[in-house]
Amino acid sequence: MTRGERMGEAQKPEAADSTYALRADVVEWLDVEDEVVALDSRRSVYLSLNGTGAVLWRVLAGGATLGQLVSSLVDDYDVAAERADIDVRDFLETLREHDLLTVE
Known about the structure:
Layout: H1 3-6, E1 20-22, E2 27-32, E3 35-40, E4 45-50, H2 51-61, H3 66-77, H4 81-97, E5 101-103
Antiparallel strand pairs: 1-5, 2-3, 3-4
């Protein structure tokens, strides 16, 4: 979800070079072995991510484009770019639904 969407504005199409990032103002997280444990501080909800979700979360912590996120899955899991693209888009949509994502 973009900052504009959080403020009630209509969703605007995202540019191909948009940068996605976690909302650092509402989520705190730690690496715990091979997984990520996160807390949505607004709702006091814990999240646990492993596998591809943990890889994407770590990349999103620093901000990344769609291409960078896809490349991280292709590199770490040796999957086809098309499959990685679908997985990344699904993951980003889930983060949007929980209002944990910004798009610049």
